[in-house]
Amino acid sequence: MRRREFIALLGLFGLTLSGRSRVAAAQQPDRLRRIGVLLPVTEKDPDSLLRAAAFEDALRNLGWINGQNIRIDYRWGGSDPERIRTYAAELVDSKPDAILASTALVLLPLQQATRTIPIVFTNIYDAVATGFVASLTHPGANITGFTLGEFSIGGKMLQLLKDVAPQVGRAAVVFNPDQSPQVALWRAIETVAPSLGVRLTAIEVHDVAGIERPIEAFGREADGALVVLPNPVTLQHRALIVELAARLRLPAVYGFRLFCVEGGLLSYGTDLIDAYRQAAGYVDRILKGAKPGDLPVQQATKFQLVINIKTAKALGLEVPVHLQQLADEVIE
Question: CA 54, CA 275: separation in Å to the nearest integer?
């Protein structure tokens, strides 16, 4: 996200804009509708604010104005499971008309807390396999949303890393084993690794305390690389992980573009901001009477490949021309 776009989105977030009254007049509900939002990030993270701003902006375009005909209650859980469980219970007890949830870490306690309040999710891998919905076409119950794709994306991440850094013979997979989608991604990487001639090491990260020491230990030997799976812990502490990879000269692949903006080598995954815009569309339909169980889960179909050429050069890597041509974005 460029600086100009960042400032523009933040200007939209939570502020009163001219012309809102005309938009709101087109859809004035009988009562103030309430939307709960639970995110596994902090309110100090600029990228988190961008996603929240995109959600509000999309709702605004549909006629829902925060502070006028809707009220949005945010809860910022960080990557602390206990805090997230507390906030999930708070939101459910407040009985909102709908809840926006991001990641399995957030969705699971919400699912356990309510089977009636509509929930729209983002940032979930394979919602059927993880048990959040009955099927993609007919989710059933009170949950629907937008997925990050299938678990096989883990294998694709390792393949791309090997294409950029063919000398890699060892890869440490940084993931949180407490979350079943992370384990499934790890297994997908395990399946692909032998055919690529890569030996895997699991680095199990539950919090920031478990990041630095195991990555440093892994980086002491040659031919290593990192596969950093996206989860609340790695997202919140992405600057630390990217710095470690640079200092230890470890090529690394990540799940989202924002890691490459921080200086990461390459990323492969979906557009997080676009998912929040799409989620606003489902919240709009729910507020107008649709049942979440009747709204099909939308599978990610477009994946962004981002390559940081500056980082590649610092690592002594020559990124193949065909990969640069395939990339959605090349950071010079």
Answer: 9
Pair of tokens at residue 117 = 């309040």
Helix (H, G, I), strand (E, B) or coil at 158: helix
Strand partners, 243: none
- Cα 210 from chain centroid? 21
Cα gap 289→295, rounded to integer Å = 11
**Number of domains forming the structure of the chain:** 2
**All residues at 6 or more sequence positions from 15 whose CB lies less than 8 Å from its CB, including other chains:** none
Overall pTM surpassing 0.90 (yes/no)? no
Range of the domain at 90: 3-149+271-294
Q: From first to last of the 332 residues of the chain, give the pLDDT tens digit.
A: 444 454 445 554 544 333 343 344 344 456 899 999 999 999 988 999 999 999 999 999 999 999 999 999 999 999 899 999 999 999 999 999 999 999 999 999 999 999 999 999 999 999 998 899 999 999 989 999 999 989 999 999 999 999 999 999 999 999 999 999 999 999 999 999 999 999 999 999 999 999 999 999 999 999 999 999 999 999 999 999 999 999 999 999 999 999 999 999 999 999 999 999 999 999 999 999 999 999 999 998 889 999 999 999 999 999 999 999 999 999 99
Residue 82 is assigned to a structural domain of this protein: yes
Selection from 22, 15, 55 nearest residue 39 by Cα: 55
201 bridge partner residues: 172
Residue 29 lies in a domain: yes
13 and 81 fall within a common domain: yes
- How many alpha carbons lie under 13 Å from residue 242 in its C-beta half-sphere? 22
Does some domain include residue 299?
Answer: no
Identify whether the C-beta of residue 173 lies closer than 8 Å to the C-beta of residue 202.
yes
Location of structure tokens 């004035």 = 28
Place of tokens 């195991």: 214
Query: Does any domain span residue 83?
Result: yes
